[in-house]
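Dear Dr. H.,

I hope your travels went smoothly. While you were away I took the liberty of generating a structure for the chain from your last submission, since the lab meeting agenda had it listed for discussion. I wanted you to have the full record in hand beforehand rather than looking at slides cold. The sequence, exactly as received, is reproduced here:
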Amino acid sequence: MLYRTVPKTGDRLSILGFGCMRYPSTRTGGIDEERTIRQIRQAIDGGVNYLDTAPVYHMGKSEVILGRALADGYREKVRIATKLPPWSVFDRDDMERILDTQLETLQTDHIDYYLLHSLSKSSFESMKMLGIFAFLDSAKKDGRIRHAGFSTHANNAVFREIVDSYDWDFCQIQYNYLDEKNQAGTDGLEYAAGKKMAVMIMEPLRGGNLAGRVPAAIQAIWDKAPVKRSPAEWALRWVWNHPEVTVVLSGMNDEAHIEENLRVADTALPGGLLEEDLATIHRARDEYWRLMKVGCTGCGYCMPCPAGVDIPGCFASYNTHALFPHDRTTKFHYIGQHGGLMGEKSSAGLCRQCGKCAKACPQHLPIPALMKDVAREMEGMMGVVVPVLKGGLWCMNKLGRVRRFVTGDKSHA
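The corresponding predicted structure, in token form, is as follows:
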């Protein structure tokens, strides 16, 4: 296993991190807890020392199972990363309650890497008003958290604003060879690294879509390469090729995939790809773009939208759905990111057809017309799904307040 150093702390982290959002399931659809624990320990025994979870993953069960997996001496071998969900925070007491509950759930006295989860511009402004920086300072001072950071799918401008707002130790962004200009992108990666922040990467395989069953035209490119690698290995090596990257998270839930990722992480040095390797990846990237429904490059010239639509983000989800129609999670990711579930609503259905975006688009895309297509394809169930999921998150938060009441802290119940 190769390791990279967190600039501000000197902490040495495995370049491969274990993402705890996609645990293996049983035939009946529940989490296969025994297999999950075996897989987590398999990764740790192979050198992984960074594990990333969150309260919302598996509707609260991810942290519970991770805490159990880290018994028997495994906690001392790793760094735990988990997240504070802004959508469950309404006052400073909620911050305290959620963190203390996480410590109990994870069976630990401290969180090594603590993130504000999936920050958007509005959720970040709300958290600042509620005193998030004072909370982070206090939690670091009393030892409950060691390092503070954030994750985000926001555009580059918002990302830079968040980076500049606080003395963060690290951040977490989506990054892969299709997202060089999407969300924070390469510019954001380099900007954060220039601030001496560690950068953790999520979605290096775009939820697994850049691995496994890829379009035939893409597989043909990999097959013609002089070096034989799986689609997953090509994608992971591309991310690790960037020296600014600290950890790449993989939602590993298959023993063979864990072994493959561990093998690749033994040799994936920054700057290790040859020019012909990069040319092969660029051909695959260009073919993906050719296959996409919308030729959006994610440049952001169309933003901000007066109606609040995340135009590049909506197009990215729409293209992913077109490329990987077998992936049933794409629409749910769209709803989560743009349907108002974990931040302000930014879906295509908000488009007012004003045309401002089309005038600014360097690709000359008919954006208002395309927004109708995106809404038609991606938002059919949004009016039903979002209220249901929001209700679930509200119940999780309410249960926390009830727990606080029955344990005696009645002043905040």
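Two observations you may find useful: Confidence is low (pLDDT under 50) at residues 402-413. Residues 27 and 375 are 33 Å apart (CA to CA).

With kind regards,
E. W.
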